[in-house]
């Protein structure tokens, strides 16, 4: 095993022999040193989402990271990087834990894994994580079905706990007309009339070039805060670190075709902005903002959905993910539900207490969500009702 602590690189007792090696890096510069290899591994990891790209993780670390807390665990086969766990040490509810980088800002978390090396890489990654000292539980709070994290959990030698996490909604990357075919005929007719109104109002959409992506994200965030003025807003969205992370990640990801910022103008004036993240399989609608008065004239969610579907088809992706949250403005499209899981991997006895607390909090949150959803449906008689705050990022306040 190779351990990097920022002072130097020193060999430790080997965790594997022959062609396999594992590494654990704790210095923050490791992410940048390994950028090319992490990018290449992401391209070879079909289950990974945009939230596992080097650009997303490194921009987050630059804005949120704490020196000394990085735990980047790598597995190599004949020198080639075949698995990676980008984690950090932290304390959650008083317990020492490992958590994925960008937890909180990411709708899906996962490891990177090249399926060509599946069996050997999964086993060695699990053993390397167990060899990391100072933690009782590995808390994977938003694991998508089919993720590499499920494979690590299946082969984990210690105790594991699974519990429901967020529900994410998806639509196939079809033409907007086909999507309207999923809803009742009368509703579909109203939506078609709203599309004609959007076009008649002179609203145009344009993907900004990568060199303008950071500037466009700043403008989008300004619109987002205007949109939520005088209503409860996610406090993180008001902070400079969130702005730095999102602008830096979007700019770098746009250069590689892994993100797009779409600006909407009306008579030359910027009236809305939309950030979508482009993964191997889906386009994710992450965050948007619009001038407060736009909603009175057009159905903003319909306007953006049409464009997001076009981006997905243009990039050859199978779906548009509306990401976390089951707000009425998403459900009206009759999307498919994708249930995330929270997976806790135990290393020592206190992990059972941590997992029990996580399960209790998850049950309480589910009850609150059901009550809030019922109230939202009661008040959402209009199809263009403003989105309510939820656990996701798109329109999240």
Give the structure's gist in a few sentences:
Keywords: Transferase. GO terms for molecular function: transferase activity. This protein is of the alpha+beta class.
What does this structure look like?
This protein has 397 residues and is of the alpha+beta class. The chain folds into two domains: 156 residues, Gcn5-related N-acetyltransferase (GNAT) (Aminopeptidase), CATH 3.40.630; 170 residues, 3-Layer(aba) Sandwich (Aminopeptidase). The chain contains twelve helices and 15 strands. It has a 15-stranded mixed β-sheet that branches. The longest helix has 30 residues. The chain is globular, with a radius of gyration of 22 Å. The N and C termini lie far apart (44 Å). About 7% of the residues have low confidence.
SSE layout and pairings?
Elements lengths: L1 E3 L4 E3 L8 E6 L3 H5 L1 H9 L10 H11 L5 E8 L2 E13 L2 E6 L11 E2 L4 H14 L5 E7 L4 H7 L5 E13 L3 H5 L4 H16 L2 E5 L5 H15 L12 H16 L3 E8 L2 E10 L3 E9 L9 H15 L4 E6 L3 H4 L4 E11 L3 H30 L18
Parallel strand pairs: 1-3, 6-8, 13-14
Antiparallel strand pairs: 1-2, 3-4, 4-5, 5-6, 5-7, 8-15, 9-14, 9-15, 10-11, 11-12, 12-13
Helix pairs in contact: 3-9, 8-9
Instruction: Compute the CA-based radius of gyration.
Output: 22 Å
**Average predicted local confidence, pLDDT:** 90
Number of domains: 2
Classify the oligomer. Answer: single chain
Largest sheet: 15 strands, mixed
What is the CATH architecture term of the largest domain?
3-Layer(aba) Sandwich
The named CATH superfamily of the largest domain = Gcn5-related N-acetyltransferase (GNAT)
Proportion in helices: 25-40%
* Gap between N and C termini: 44 Å
